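Entry type: protein chain
Record version: 2
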Amino acid sequence: MADQANHHRYGEKSDRQRMPAIINGLKCRCPACGEGKLFSRYLKTVDACAACGTEIHHHRADDLPAYLVILILGHFMVGGYMTGAELLDVPDWVHLAIWVPLTAIAAFAIIQPIKGAVVGLQWALRMHGFDGKGDDQPAEY
């Protein structure tokens, strides 16, 4: 019972601040200390922070970073295409030659920082093992 009393419930005040953790994640740094690297490879997170030792291996970003990339880029790229189609009188293949590579490059450029921000948010909210218990089991209330 004492273990359940210390468990963080969603909506309660947390001693972890969300915005600094998200910003550290956007910088691809450890959400806890902001010093250690968050990724060992392109989208593979480190098991633990080299600077502070915070375990990161149990995060569950899953598909959210990809959905956010689609949401963000969709707005910019569709708007850019539509504006370009109105302002420039060029064939459709020119638009494809411009917008498809630009979209792919932008997607690869922003997915790592977005995944870092998602991991930072999960750390700040004590989700998926970031509650200090070391496992990914749901709390029993």
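Comment: The chain has a mean pLDDT of 86.
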